[in-house]
Amino acid sequence: MTELSATVRSVADTARWVAYFRARETQRPDPLFRDPYAARLAGEQGFRIANTLPAANKHEWAWVARTYLFDPFISRAIQDGADLVVNLAAGLDARPYRMNLPATLQWVEVDLPDIVSYKEEILGNEEPRCQLKRLSLDLSEVACRRELFAQLNARSTKIVVASEGLLIYFTAEEVASLAKDLAAGEHFQSWIIDLASPGQLRLMQRTTGKQLSEADAAFKFAPPEGPKFFARYGWESKDVQGLLKTAARFKRAPAETLSLLPEPKGDFGNYPWTGVCLLEKR
Ligand SMILES: C[S@@+](CC[C@H](N)C(=O)[O-])C[C@H]1O[C@@H](n2cnc3c(N)ncnc32)[C@H](O)[C@@H]1O
After folding, report:
1. DSSP 131-154
2. Which of 39, 153, 198, 224 sits between 20 and 30 A of 121, alpha carbons compared?
3. 280: which strand partners?
4. Whose CA is nearest to atom 25 of ligand 1?
5. Which residues make Cβ contacts (< 8 Å) with residue 79, sequence separation at least 6?
6. Confidence class of residue 5 from pLDDT cuts 50, 70 and 90?
7. How many CB atoms lie within 10 A of CB 52?
């Protein structure tokens, strides 16, 4: 293992990396969101990853735009009657503590055991604003996740799923299988995902992705058909927001990327695009 890849020891460490950017955003005088827990959660390891991996810091605007876009999608789903938020691969996300939420809302976070126990250590004494449960589960274990989804389906009436920063680590077959499993429960109504185009995936694989592959956290998923990929598994794309467009709106996009705007219409193909999509059950 190289010195660089040693900073990212496994896919779970990518959660510390994202938390580091949320901490930096929170320190700005004009933050797009505030996460007062992010600095503690990111810890030294988050700082090290962001400042050691090649090009890891270069796309801070994209990480921030992603979190910024997930927030209102989740809020709107709750306003529209969701009584359970299921955050798959929640990592070190602190939304149950930092967002304005109904006290009766159920919120279930799922992630790998190491990151769940680390988070519990840091946030164990904090008070979430809703009914929060944290579960350790490897989402690639199909039988276990199906059992969990069936239990969640039985105990709520309208579920919104968020999976921020997860799908890129899965193959297309794995994403298809997860999409089908989520579509199976009648109360699973919406799913908020982030997505990269094949062009963006190639760029990421050439830079940060090389080191992440060594830590078994290779970037894999970027369907050529974009959000339409999910239609055949029961999910229709209702809203799609590009990260670059969002960052440009807040004057956060670096000058060298602005020539990429406006975004093309239709399939993104080689165009280096990442965005957040709201999917709804068909
Ligand atoms: C880039 S982080 C994103 C974390 C969080 N959603 C956020 O935006 O801050 C990716 C997360 O996916 C989790 N993850 C990756 N593969 C997983 C799997 N098979 N089962 C459960 N969690 C997984 C990692 O542990 C990590 O927390």
Report:
1. EEEEEE--TT-HHHHHHHHHHHHH
2. 153
3. 190, 236
4. 12
5. none
6. very low
7. 16
